[in-house]
Amino acid sequence: MACQGLQGGETVASLKRESESLRKKLEExxxxxxxxxxxxxxxxxxxxxxxxxxxxxxxxxxxxxxxCMDWCKDKRRLVSSSQDGKVIVWDxxxxxKEHGVALPCTWVMxxxxxPSGCAVAxxxxxxxxxxxxxxxxxxxxLSAKKKSVAMHTNYxxxxxxxxxxxxxxxxxxxGTCALWDVESGQLLQSFHGHTADVLSLDxxxxxxxxxxxxxxxxxxxxxxxxxxxxxxxxxxxxxxxxNCVKYYPSGDAFASASDDATCRFYDLRADREVAVYQKDSxxxxxxxxxxxxxxxxLFAGYNDYTINVWDVLKGTRASILFGHENRVSRVRVxxxxxxxxSASWDNTLRVSWAAYL
Amino acid sequence: MTINTMAKGxxxxxxxxxxxxxxxxxxxxxxxxxxxxxxxxxxLITVIPHAMTGRxxxxxxIHTYSICEEEALHLSGLLVRYGYIxxxxxxxxxxxxxxxxxxxxxxxxxxxxxxxxASELDYAIYLAKKNxxxxxxxxxxxxxxxxxxxxxxxxTWDFVVMQARExxxxxxxxxxxxxxxFECQEQAYWLINRPxxxxxxLYSLLHFCTILFYIILYCTLLYYTILCNALPYYTTIETxxxxxxxxxxxxxxxxxxxxxxxVKYSEQYQNHDPIMQGSLPSNPWISDDTAYWTMNSETxxxxxxxxxxxxxFSFMELLNDDMGRREFMxxxxxxxxxxxxxxxxxxxDIKHGESSRIIEKVEMIYKNFLAPGAARWVNIDSKTMDKxxxxxxxxxRFIMDDAQMHIYFLMKKDSYxxxxxxxxxxxxxxxxxxxxETKKSVFPFVRRQRHANPSPAQAVAQATEEDGHAKGAGxxxxxxAAGSHV
Lengths: 357, 486
Prior knowledge:
heterodimer; A: 357 residues; mainly beta; four-stranded antiparallel β-sheet; B: 486 residues; disordered C terminus; WH_DNA-bd_sf (chain B); GGL_sf (chain B)
């Protein structure tokens, strides 16, 4: 088999060497402007006192591991999906189950609530992402109205609506992300660049609203331009798969959670990693992260069943939350910041309240 | 970690890094200077050296890693569960008791990571040894497994029995204390790697995955040796080159400026973060009272002070809040520049709306905002205007981007700062309410009834009925909770 594209004299090895030297050069360039570290800047801020966290709701109803959840914009409803193929829409405040759909596939790894609150999207091992309009008729079978939107060649690991119900963005185990039009099911843009499964994505809360970040098993976190499909920035400092990525509320930075038991904070304007959240006693990988409303706290769910709360600016751990009996698969702060929901492989979701008293 | 990597042995890789970290902790615990105090433990007649109590383990972890007791219990529980420390008194109970119960470090020879995967042959030899040593000492589950193994690896059974006998003979020549220690260690190893009933699904899954791992490893190696294609490498490197070159040419901002902005942002939003500062009148999840949500809802007549303050943080905050947007529109109407906001909203609608209606919407925008003599003509610079008009001939989703951006920044730099200084805004701020904090109920045990509210889908459907035409992607609003409750 001919190795097409190689010029005379080049070998894979020499290309690799050149790539390594470019990488080193990039590291040097990044270091030139890093005149201060985050925890130094944060020295003047007060240290946070002890954080109180209480679990206020336990949502029981899934028959198997809960893999994903998403809040509705009304701050009290949420959708969750699990390994047994069920997707449930809850009013977490009253513990009512409002809608339930049984998908034909197992391992529904991604679910998202539409911004209008009128639909949910979910996908997983069926390689598709489907949108279900939420019907008000309790007797109506939601599966009948299902609309298959995304089609990948491998499992769908993450999905999210953009600013409206009309478009969804998906990430997949086939190494790509894609933007789809819900109405027609058409592929609007695809994003290639990851060299392994893409596990997570998040939309930027920026004014121009045109970028998103994705993280994958190739240990890279990439920033993409939604319009052109280009990879505009890339960060590679994790030592293992990146399980989850989430933007800082201002849109100038993002955090990532990885199997190497660390969470890292990357600044987009400085183009580098600015903080690593790790502790010797934290041994198992982190699978999910989310910021509090002001961005001061970072909630991270781990595979050793705990949730660690990190002080984003000082780099220290503010608190640790126990309670789940299996690994925490997803942690999300509610849209107004009043509560924290954690989904776990122990078949439950917990809504917790946290405050500095 | 993903489903695919679980099949391809990636789980092995993930577990390995966790094992390495746990081993680091264990090695630190055994450090002669900073490590744990060991004592001799008496077990019936024999004295076991180098043992420690559960209480000491907890104390050492708390001291070394500056963690609380609950976390130390959790961490030590992990160390026991993964076989790095084993209990001497009740070997089958793999929990760490924070009292005087004795524990010992597992020898590295028997670490899960060293002898991965635990082989069937070794297990068979172990069970055979137990069987020979004392007939009937095998537990029920061990007996079933023993007979299963006997069937499965019958062809090597002679070897198994011979090895078992040899090992027993060799052990008889050791000192009694050493022999007991070794037996304890071996027993602990097998309790971890072949747990009684699949309490730890982890390990049965482990077993399954290792088989799958080998099958798939074999297949992948076969695949690659047959194809022997270096092309995948090349395309990966090529993409790396483009990304690196692009990154090298990027404009970066000094860290001091970037990081300072995070501090400022967190400070600015601190009062608005319910976790940092609490929420007035009360957090609904604690008090079961939805007043906080109803006060901040879409259609409330007078907004809260925090909400109005937030409009002054950035232009995006103002536009993201529907009420803020309406107020801004009122202000612009007074200034006779409302067409800017209308134009911007129409462009957003194209960007995020249905694909099928793009052409129709672009035409409408042209007619209303861009055509010469249009009713609500927007003032865009000539270069952008030309480009946009040119592009309208082949309309697509992003055709209005440049014009929209121009108008957005115009509003942001000009109208928005003036709005913040205007009487309209100042009056709104003055009459905005600051809710009173709800006094904690006299009887904290009495749980208030949690009211349901119509779901956003219901709200949209109702609006559709009322108005008689489709609303599309409306905002999610919560109607007053007084209406319905479950």
